[in-house]
Amino acid sequence: MDIVITFKSTHEAMKAKKHVIVQPLEGEIIPTPREISKECGFAILVKNSSADKVMKFFEDNRLIYSHIYEVINEGGKKRYEENN
Q1: I want to staple 63 with a disulfide (CB 3.0 to 4.6 A). Which of 51, 58, 71, 75 is the partner?
Q2: Residue-level pLDDT at 27
Q3: Which pLDDT score is estimated for 32?
Q4: Are the C-beta atoms of 7 and 64 separated by less than 8 Å?
Q5: Burial class (CB in 10 A: 0-12, 13-18, 19+), 57
Q6: Which of 57, 51, 42, 49 is nearest to 69 (CA)?
Q7: How far apart are CA 51 and CA 46, in angstroms?
Q8: Which residues of 18-42 are buried (b: 16+ CB within 10 A; e: fewer)?
Q9: How many CB atoms lie within 10 A of CB 65?
Q10: Dist. CA 44–CA 12, nearest whole Å
Q11: SS in 3 state form for the chain?
Q12: pLDDT per residue as tens digits for the range 26-59
């Protein structure tokens, strides 16, 4: 499953990016999908992972994020489900 992580600021997104791209999370920086957040223009997309694994990684590395969403593909259209 693909996961999108949002942030409150560009600074937090860029700090997290430095960690995610060197770890085995397959993360990349993307423009934040407007349907999920207007706080920061950048988000991180992590492919083939789970929300639990991503949350643990962020906690272990003391990285700050705003929300974590699971990407649901329904008939070629993406839907984002917030993970609480």
Answers
A1: 58
A2: 85
A3: 94
A4: yes
A5: buried
A6: 51
A7: 9
A8: ebbeeeebebeeeebeeebbebbeb
A9: 18
A10: 11
A11: CEEEEECCCHHHHHHHHHHHCCCCCCEEEEECCCCCCCCCCEEEEECCCCHHHHHHHHHHCCCCCCEEEEEEEECCEEEEEECC
A12: 789 999 998 898 888 999 999 988 999 999 999 9
Could you give phi then psi for residue 58, rounded to 5 degrees? -65, -40
Residue with tokens 């999908």: 33
Q: Could you give the CA distance from residue 56 to residue 27 in angstroms, rounded to a whole number? A: 15
Edge-first strand listing for the sheet containing 2-6: 27-31, 42-46, 2-6, 67-74, 77-82
